[in-house]
Amino acid sequence: MLELAILGLLQESPMHGYELRKELATKLGTIRAAISYGTLYPTLKRLQTAGWIGEAESADSEIIPPLTSKRGRVVYKITAEGKERFAELLAQAGPETYDDAGFGVHFAFFSRTDRATRLRILEGRRRRIEERREGLREVLARASDRLDAYTLELQRHGLDACEREVRWLEELITNERSGKSPATATNLKTGTSPAGETPLEHPGPHQDRPQ
Amino acid sequence: MLELAILGLLQESPMHGYELRKELATKLGTIRAAISYGTLYPTLKRLQTAGWIGEAESADSEIIPPLTSKRGRVVYKITAEGKERFAELLAQAGPETYDDAGFGVHFAFFSRTDRATRLRILEGRRRRIEERREGLREVLARASDRLDAYTLELQRHGLDACEREVRWLEELITNERSGKSPATATNLKTGTSPAGETPLEHPGPHQDRPQ
DNA sequence: GTGGCGATGTATCGGGCCGATACATCGTGC
DNA sequence: GCACGATGTATCGGCCCGATACATCGCCAC
């Protein structure tokens, strides 16, 4: 999961770890508060070993290095194999694509995903949430007298969140089918154009079988 | 976190692993979909080593063992030290008490928690969510032109969820202060009585043995 | 009657991710 | 000159997950 996110961010521009962590935090927002360094650095090492990313130590080619560069920050950049790996991860949608973290990361890179995959993921996520919702309704209907008031309140709040997310997903799916991008949310002034910076830069990029 | 949940459930009645997992799933609902066995069994072993829980192998004292009991299910029961440990975990509220999983588990056992601790946890959680909310507003205000339409939609959805949870917490806090138990939700027909089975089994005295 | 099959049940293993911790350097203020 | 907070890299122990491998029970079909 983190692998996908790192590859995606490094595709935009090379970065060092600290910067990567901050970008990750703003890009993923709620989904994944802030990645731990205890996760980030080992993952970077793993990606480097696999050949997806490369090291470009202190690549200040524009201005004169403002620091003595004794043993400075390590700048990582994505390799050609890394780009392939990224595309592969983007296109595939397993069960882990539909849990909270996995879905969030995939969604954050939807502007680089083709429409068919977007729809597949949105529908998979919806199904997942609908199952969760049914489970909660089951519990509230069947076992409500066996649980205390606080537990019940927790279930109710969870059920509410599920119903809300399903509606959100429905709306996104409808938009996808009709060819509109999101950002046409009802309660936003939306000063930015709906097709912002990179709405669809890959017309039909997914390699393997279209399916 | 799991430790608290297991101790709490075993306080209600002895159980074996499989049963524990199912109870955990219904009790925690959204918070923690279903605990993995790869987590559960090592945790049980850990709790047993620590002396918080004990083994009561195949304790079918009521009816004749319906199975040959070759090497049957292992029933776990909480020990006296385990009960103390549970009370200790219930009362303390660190930073990990306010993240999604931690808060959910604590909340699920609020009927065993004294009012002061409940308020402390609810307010800590509210603060945590408010910080998350402010972070999202910051991003939406400052970096909205730097992010694509999908990422923005993700942030907006996250912000919405934060605002909703803060309102929910406000309501719970108000109820706590005025001495009411929850379950008087506004948007529910609420066929069950608001003071269901165990709304407040501890009037004021916190931990130690309740019964 | 036996053979498959899904539910019940216990257990391990590799690996991802986290929090805590330890460093080292830079810019700034005093 | 030096303390201090921001920036920056890195490791360690530990929780938790998914995958996997078992073994048993009740039941139905053939």
From TrEMBL, chains A, B:
InterPro entries: Metal_resp_DNA-bind_regulator, Tscrpt_reg_PadR_N, WH-like_DNA-bd_sf, WH_DNA-bd_sf. Residues 6-88 form the Transcription regulator PadR N-terminal domain. The keyword Cell cycle does not apply. SUPFAM superfamilies: Winged helix' DNA-binding domain. The keyword Coiled coil applies. Residues 119-153 form a coiled coil. It comes from the Bacteria. Residues 174-211 are annotated as: Disordered. Residues 181-195 have a biased composition (Polar residues). Residues 199-211 have a biased composition (Basic and acidic residues). Keywords: Coiled coil. Pfam families: PadR. This is PadR family transcriptional regulator. It comes from Actinoplanes nipponensis. The lineage of its organism: Bacteria, Bacillati, Actinomycetota, Actinomycetes, Micromonosporales.
